[in-house]
């Protein structure tokens, strides 16, 4: 039952888990692995993809982190509609590589705390254009200056 709830959660939200250092001034690095399920347009077209991101920057205050990152998003082939046995719209599989600035506001300086994360940048591959991502999440502090972050993302991609 727990496994089913976990799978349903992954299918409903774009979640990202990451390892991150504790909230102390200075350099911080994040490595994230995530899975996205996206519906777009007025149709029932959906896109599933896996992603790996790395973000590095400076914790200016206990609440504000500013950094830059790069992602590797593995997007499968996408088809929409069916006209005479052929897709109305089709996009081949690709790997998107967004390069972005990252701004994170941590609400509290506690072991478990919510945060808001904004990423603005550019997709370097396939002429995809601007990359924008708003994350809302929760940080769970662990021992040895590490944490696990769980996020829900509103992501803008040109498919």
Structure description:
This protein is mainly β and 159 residues long. Helix content is 7%, strand content 64%. It has an eight-stranded antiparallel beta barrel with strand order 1-2-3-4-8-9-10-11. The longest helix is centred in the first third of the chain and has 11 residues.
Q: How many strand elements?
A: 11
- Average pLDDT for all residues: 78
What is the chains' assembly state? single chain
Largest sheet: 8 strands, antiparallel, barrel
Helix proportion: under 10%
Radius of gyration: 17 Å
Which key terms come to mind for this protein?
159 residues, mainly beta, eight-stranded antiparallel β-barrel, two-stranded antiparallel sheet, 1 helix, elongated
Write the layout of secondary structure elements.
Layout: H1 2-12, E1 15-21, E2 26-39, E3 46-59, E4 64-75, E5 78-80, E6 89-91, E7 94-96, E8 98-106, E9 112-123, E10 129-141, E11 146-156
Antiparallel strand pairs: 1-2, 1-11, 2-3, 3-4, 4-7, 4-8, 5-6, 8-9, 9-10, 10-11
């Amino acid at each position: 039952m727990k496994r089913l709830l976990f799978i349903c959660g992954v299918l409903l939200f774009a979640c990202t888990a990451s390892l991150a250092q504790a909230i102390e001034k200075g350099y911080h690095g994040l490595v994230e692995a995530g899975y996205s399920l996206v519906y777009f347009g007025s149709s029932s077209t959906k896109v599933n993809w896996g992603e790996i991101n790395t973000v590095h920057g400076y914790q200016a205050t206990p609440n504000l982190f500013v950094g830059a990152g790069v992602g590797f998003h593995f997007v499968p082939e996408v088809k929409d509609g069916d006209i005479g046995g052929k897709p109305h719209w089709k996009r081949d599989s690709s790997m998107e590589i967004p390069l972005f600035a990252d701004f994170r506001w941590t609400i509290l300086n506690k072991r478990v705390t919510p945060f808001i994360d904004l990423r603005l940048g550019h997709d370097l591959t396939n002429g995809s254009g601007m990359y924008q991502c708003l994350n809302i999440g929760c940080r769970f502090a662990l021992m040895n200056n590490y944490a696990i972050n769980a996020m829900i993302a509103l992501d803008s991609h040109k498919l």
